[in-house]
Amino acid sequence: MNTAVSTPVTIQPRSWRALIQAIRPPTLLAGLGPVLIGISLGVHQRDVMKISEGAVVFPALAALLLVVFLQAAANLVNDAKDAEKGVDKGERLGPIRVVQSGLLTIPQVRLAYWTMFALAAGLVVALFAMNPAPVIPLVALACGLAAYLYTAGPFPLAYYALGEILACIFFGPIAVMGTVYLLTGYILWETAFWGLGSGLIAAAIMAVNNLRDRKGDKDAGKHTLATLSSEQTARKLPLLLVMASAMILALYGFEHNKVIIAVPWALLALSFIRRRITPRLQGEGPLLNEALKFTALFNLFYAMLFASLVLL
């Protein structure tokens, strides 16, 4: 997902700054949010289930690093494959794409994303050594395949209007429930539902990204929900998604007798949406870049609200 805002800073070709630009650090917020929610739910469930054995700190850190490595790999694959397919053009409104702009070559970016996948695999091996359950490598493999096949392979998922759905699933229920499993050793299906809020925000990030790139994607034949719908609908979709996430936050409070905390927390979330995201969704170019930035920040803000609601 593409949330960084382009800047006039000069980036030297084949430099570390070019590589960091390709990784797009602001997008990593989309992955950190659900893991923080998963950690809070995992810690809470350990207390409820009176689990005293088993490590907590390493699985929590491993989950955070794993999502960072996979998101970085997905961004690098996206940069290389979009350049190969001619989707990125010089007049694009988003941040600089390093292959299209000549800052890095495709082989260099390919080496970078395989390195990220290798680091993620190393973490999975370490987690499996601690808890030799087949679900760990299977879920990790599914996440890795989704990161790669998003824009690579014979059927690039992002080109067939599946971006929002994938973002919602992998940056919501799977990330949250997977993190809870690492901390507790139990598959707790209800945590998948509570992870849906973060997933909806991740889908909103994707929706804003596709709204901004709507014209270029249409010209390149890339199908997204934004290109397949009217511009008016494409502007409303991300707003509906983030508002639905606030409702899930409130619902968790009602379900767990924490209404006195959940209501003001949900109002805080809605206030952030109204002040930071809504007005920017009506703009063009730079304003949509700002909408992406604030939607990504909202994911982290939402995770902090949700985690504090769980643990208080």
Low-confidence stretches: 1-9
CATH architecture, please?
Orthogonal Bundle
Structural class: mainly alpha
Percent of residues in beta strands: under 5%
Percent helix range: over 70%
Radius of gyration: 19 Å
- The CATH topology name reads Farnesyl Diphosphate Synthase
Alpha-carbon distance between the two ends: 32 Å
Query: Secondary-structure element sequence?
Result: HHHHHHHHHHHHHH
Number of helices: 14
By DSSP, the count of extended strands is: 0
Mean pLDDT, nearest integer? 90
Quickly describe the structure.
The protein has 14 helices and no strands. It is mainly α.
Textual characterization of the structure:
The protein is mainly alpha-helical. It has one domain: Farnesyl Diphosphate Synthase (Orthogonal Bundle), CATH 1.10.600. It is built from 14 helices and no strands. The chain has helices spanning 16-23, 29-48, 57-85, 106-130, 135-149, 163-170, 173-184, 190-194, 196-212, 214-220, 225-228, 231-255, 259-277, 286-311. The radius of gyration is 19 Å and the shape is globular. The two termini are 32 Å apart. 50% of the residues are buried.
